[in-house]
Amino acid sequence: MATTNGPLLSVRDLVVRFRTHDGTVHAVNGVSYDVAERETLGLVGESGCGKSVTNLAVMRLLPRPAGRIEGGEIRFEGIELTKASEAQMRDLRGSDIAMIFQDPMTSLNPVLTIEEQMVETIRAHRAVGQKEARDRAIELLRMVGIPNPEARLRSFPHHFSGGMRQRVMIAMALALEPKLLIADEPTTALDVTIQAQVLELLQRLTAERGTAVVLITHDLGVVAGMTSRINVMYAGFVVETASTPVLFAEPRHPYTVGLLHSMPRLDSPEGEPLIPIEGTPPDLRTAPVGCPFAPRCAWRLPRCWETNPSLQPLVAGVPIVTTGPDVTHRIACWNPPTADEARLGRPLREGFVPAPPPGTGGAESGPGADVVVFTTEGDGPEGGTAAAGQAPAPIVPGRPS
Ligand SMILES: Nc1ncnc2c1ncn2[C@@H]1O[C@H](COP(=O)(O)OP(=O)(O)OP(=O)(O)O)[C@@H](O)[C@H]1O
Ligand code: SF4
Ligand SMILES: [Mg+2]
């Protein structure tokens, strides 16, 4: 495998579509991000926003024939995966990039014993004999806390509880010491106590091995504890990216602000009510035009209905760092909330009213209005990003103290 000085994984302008009888699903609409060696990136967003599809594209495991990568590049250690042959991808999967799915039964073969599956995986990628591969499988099961691993090797997947099956999945995913592990909702099917144990195990084992991790989850509490950086996705776009502490302390995209206000947090003042995000995500069978969050956004301006802002640094002109603790905080928004507004979860500018959809004659339309609209990408937040007629709000990224 080639090595480079760049990031381990580099995704640029990724576009994924599903061509279905029902129309074209615009699942991923130009997503770019990097993952450095040993880094842990969280991917959050509501159901259907493209988290799994983005990562299935990286693994080149999109359901065919409907799912296609229709644009962009995916480089892993400098190799362009969108152009790699099936044989190259088979080689890479498991050995360099591994994926854990929410439901292990989708990845474990129900008619083979754990021994058959683990030994086969190890031998497919390593020049080792049967006994050596079996010993390695036992060692791996012991490592993930499966009691009596010699005997359990002979079990079938359905003989394990949900938590134990997920541990087996982790053992299989780490069997070949991949450089990147993609964990797609690895614990949501488990009860809360088991979830915590499995996540703790995943975190410890990947940290010990220096494995880079992309952790996909609905649960902001999970990413808070397990990741160093977060991408927030909405309707197939990354709408905010920042280091985990910065994202929690200073969210600046209205959708992220909404997400944070809709979940219980340990640091919320006592008695503070949760505020659900009104409305629903757009139907991705409609071509994405305008800001996809506009129908639900309390900060929207007239231009939000017309052009979709691209991901830009909060402070124009700063060099963009895409990985590591000093990653540049970027948002895709024409009119970001100020820090005070983000804290309260609503605009505080006197007299500000979210722009009504065009053609409604100026009629008021609050968040949740059921409208989907318009054209293509613009060029990011404007200096000042203020509501029409308002003084620009100063926006300065920073680290929480
Ligand atoms: N096989 C498929 N055929 C058609 N559309 C699909 C298919 N798989 C996913 N999609 C669509 O692609 C979009 C992105 O789906 P994806 O599974 O990535 O969402 P997600 O963010 O992972 O959601 P969840 O949190 O529910 O897992 C959705 O609109 C979904 O309906
Ligand atoms: S202010 Fe405009 S660009 Fe920003 S999230 Fe709201 S609708 Fe989208
Ligand atoms: Mg998913």
How is the topology of this model organized?
Layout: E1 9-20, E2 23-35, E3 40-44, H1 51-59, E4 67-76, E5 79-80, H2 86-92, E6 97-100, H3 114-125, H4 130-143, H5 149-152, H6 162-174, E7 180-184, H7 192-209, E8 212-216, H8 220-226, E9 229-234, E10 237-243, H9 244-249, H10 254-261, E11 312-313, E12 330-331, H11 339-344
Helix pairs in contact: 3-4, 4-6, 6-7
Bound molecules: adenosine-5'-triphosphate (ATP), iron/sulfur cluster and magnesium ion (MG).
Quick rundown:
It contains eleven helices and twelve strands.
How many separate domains? 2
* Multimerization state: single chain
Q: Which consecutive residue ranges, at least 5 long each, have pLDDT under 50? A: 363-401
Bound molecules: adenosine-5'-triphosphate, iron/sulfur cluster, magnesium ion
Describe this structure in words.
This protein is of the alpha/beta class and 401 residues long. It has two domains: 9-227, 3-Layer(aba) Sandwich (Rossmann fold), CATH 3.40.50; 264-344, no CATH class. 26% of the residues lie in helices and 18% in strands. An eight-stranded mixed beta sheet has the order 6-7-8-3-9-10-12-11, with helices on both faces. A four-stranded antiparallel beta sheet has the order 2-1-4-5, with helices on one face. Bound molecules: adenosine-5'-triphosphate, iron/sulfur cluster and magnesium ion. Adenosine-5'-triphosphate binds at residues 18, 20, 25, 27, 45, 47-53, 63, 66-67, 218, 284.
